[in-house]
């Protein structure tokens, strides 16, 4: 059962711009052609969420925007009313929390982007790649292994307190500004490329990411090698 307010055809079906309220109390505002949704329209669901996009023959097609009841947003690609294709989601503060693919309304694929990695335990961040200052990619098993790894091996550069490379930005012809490593000096054949991870050496100051335990151990060992021995008579 539904109630239509707006332009109707000779059969009493919505035709043109109408507002249709369904028995579930869901409401649709948009364009109709003889009872079928055709053109731009927007659903207002009973729980406070909305879905907006372009309809063809009563089904959402192409780009659509679903807004959750809490204000989060999903921007996705719809085929015959279902999510199929690229999509990205944002939380209530506008931060990107997912970017990937959907298939038949279900997240599909192996690479998606998380926001709250800084608050997670180190054990959960072993396979994260820093794309830029705000974006971190989580690489799940088994795609973190070199045999299946698809990103550049620059992401796997080890830490050194005397590195021969630095993290820098590179303008990729397809992806735009992305993170890379750049050499600081001439590098010999078969020489390992290393970078300084930049962890915070004094956690209370929080000037950088807090260092994991292995880093703190290596830091103490490095600092010990840098201490000059005391001379006799001093």
UniProtKB/TrEMBL annotation:
Gene3D superfamilies documented for this protein: Histone H3 K4-specific methyltransferase SET7/9 N-terminal domain, SET domain
Xref: InterPro entries: MORN, SET_dom, SET_dom_sf
Superkingdom in the source lineage: Eukaryota
Record carries keyword NADP: no
GO process annotations (BP): heterochromatin organization; methylation
GO molecular function (one): chromatin binding
The entry's keywords: Activator, Chromatin regulator, Chromosome, Methyltransferase, Nucleus, Repeat, S-adenosyl-L-methionine, Transcription, Transcription regulation, Transferase
PROSITE patterns found in the cross-reference section: SET (PS50280)
Protein localization: Chromosome; Nucleus
Enzymatic reactions: L-lysyl-[protein] + S-adenosyl-L-methionine = N(6)-methyl-L-lysyl-[protein] + S-adenosyl-L-homocysteine + H(+); L-lysyl(4)-[histone H3] + S-adenosyl-L-methionine = N(6)-methyl-L-lysyl(4)-[histone H3] + S-adenosyl-L-homocysteine + H(+)
Alphabetized Pfam families for the sequence: MORN (PF02493), SET (PF00856)
Domain annotation SET: ranges: 49-198
Protein name per the record: Histone-lysine N-methyltransferase SETD7
Organism placement in taxonomy: Eukaryota, Metazoa, Chordata, Craniata, Vertebrata
